[in-house]
Design brief:
Strand order of the largest sheet: 1-3-2-4-6-5
Oligomer: single chain
Radius of gyration: 35 Å
Helix content: 25-40%
Order of helices and strands: HHHHEEHHEHEHHEEHH
Structural class: alpha/beta
Strand content: 5-15%
């Protein structure tokens, strides 16, 4: 029977041992005989690299370009939109919002453009983002039932019994978080232009985000709901968002009172 191979008799074993030592960081071999390292030739001196000529130096970096003002650009784009189609295109082309990178669809509007009542909500949720329409999810279904209670709906052919719906933000924020102050400021010009183009008789600011954005105030919606304010030179009713009502069913009584107030206000209009 042959004797087992060792590093002394097998080249492959010896090579594997050497490779292992290299991997472990060994950079120099040591033999049995002593070595007088002082007698070795000194390492060659490497001449320093010549400095590059002054003419070859890179030119100084130009100062960074100042970022454009997103709010001013939004205002200019909104003012330039002559109709709803152009406004929707301007929103889609607006370059300063990162929200659309994570959203599926731009949520622009729903309902009757000639409606006397325009509802401005907060921001799209998951279902709204998926279908591209505002108030489609559970909160939207509750809104439809609320409107039906006063004989109104978003698709009614009669402008006196229909509503037009949009949001402060056209893109869904990640995880349905609240829009930031910068995001609200950027999209406010588009919403104001949207109101001008629809030209409703009455606005409904539905929810805290809608109220603080269009009123430019930090008042709590639970304190000012039911009040009539003026936005874009027209009466605006402040209401609780249907999502809030789903979390706080007892507040539906206040929402019903606001709906009756809206109905009474509509009857007084010519």
């Amino acid at each position: 029977m042959n004797a087992p191979a060792t590093w002394e008799t097998d080249w492959h074993v010896a090579r594997a041992c050497l490779d292992w030592q290299v991997e472990m960081g060994v950079v120099e071999g040591i033999c049995d005989a002593p070595i007088n390292r002082y007698a070795l030739d000194p390492a060659p001196v490497v001449a320093p690299k010549a400095d590059a000529p002054k003419s070859a130096k890179a030119p100084p970096a130009s100062p960074p370009v100042q970022n454009a003002d997103p709010v001013a650009e939004a205002q200019a784009m909104a003012d330039a939109a002559p109709d709803l189609e152009a406004l929707q295109a301007a929103l889609a082309d607006f370059p300063h919002s990162e929200l659309k990178r994570g959203a599926r669809n731009l949520v622009f509007c729903d309902g009757q453009p000639k409606a006397r009542v325009m509802i401005v909500g907060e921001a799209p949720g998951r279902e709204e983002d998926r279908q591209g329409k505002p108030f489609i999810g559970e909160a939207g279904q509750l809104l439809d039932r609320m409107l039906a209670a006063i004989n109104m709906r978003r698709d009614h052919p009669d402008p006196a019994s229909s509503v037009y719906i949009t949001n402060i933000l056209p893109w869904r924020p990640p995880q349905n978080r609240d829009p930031s102050q910068d995001e609200r400021a950027m999209f406010r010009p588009f919403v104001m232009r949207h109101i001008e183009l629809i030209n409703p008789d009455i606005l409904i600011l539905m929810g805290r985000i809608s109220a603080i954005t269009l009123l430019q105030s930090n008042e709590a919606i639970t304190r000012i709901r039911g009040e009539w304010r003026e936005v874009a030179r027209r009466p605006a009713l402040l209401m609780l968002h249907p999502a809030y009502l789903l979390r706080n069913p007892a507040a539906k009584r206040e929402a019903w009172a606001d709906l009756l107030d809206l109905q009474a206000r509509l009857r007084t209009l010519p």
